[in-house]
Amino acid sequence: MDLSYLITPFFAWLVAGCAKFAFNTIREKRLAFDLIGYGGMPSNHSSIVSSAATIIALNEGLQEPALVVALALAFIVILDANSLRQQVGKHAEAINLLNNNKEGKPLRERMGHTRVEILAGVVTGIASAWCVHYAFTYYLN
Fold first, then answer.
1. What is the pLDDT tens value at each position of the chain, 141 positions in all?
2. Burial annotation 13-24 (CB, 10 A radius, 16+ → b, else e)
3. What's the rounded Cα separation, in Å, for the pair 23 and 118?
4. What is the dihedral sign for C-alpha 37, 108, 86, 80?
5. DSSP 75-138
């Protein structure tokens, strides 16, 4: 098995996670370790699934049936990041308002992604897959 299929999603996750940490650190003007997780720029999930689809397209071509499966998975994940998880965040916000005077840790309200964050994740995933493909094609084979 070509290791590029295993390395690409991990590399995309790493690049997106580091970029998200950097954006949050700059925005908050502090090391933003507590902001690592769901939500934010770029979308890790969108980056991972778009990198998987891209590495299949680059390695196998556009006629590969596995590409259809990867694209279907990518659409599901991206739609989930934009709609369902934003609704979960709205519910968390409402629950936190109801429980504002009670003890306990508040629920995390930032869950979903904006379309710009998703687009940035897709671009990060495609760029990550291209970098891995290029490295395996010209340097590691």
1. 689 999 999 999 999 999 999 988 998 899 988 777 767 889 999 999 999 999 999 999 999 999 999 999 999 999 888 887 777 778 888 888 888 767 778 877 777 788 899 999 999 999 999 999 999 998 876
2. bebbbebbbebb
3. 15
4. positive
5. HHHHHIIIIIHHHHHHHHHHHHHHTTTSSSPPPP---S--HHHHHHHHHHHHHHHHHHHHHHHH
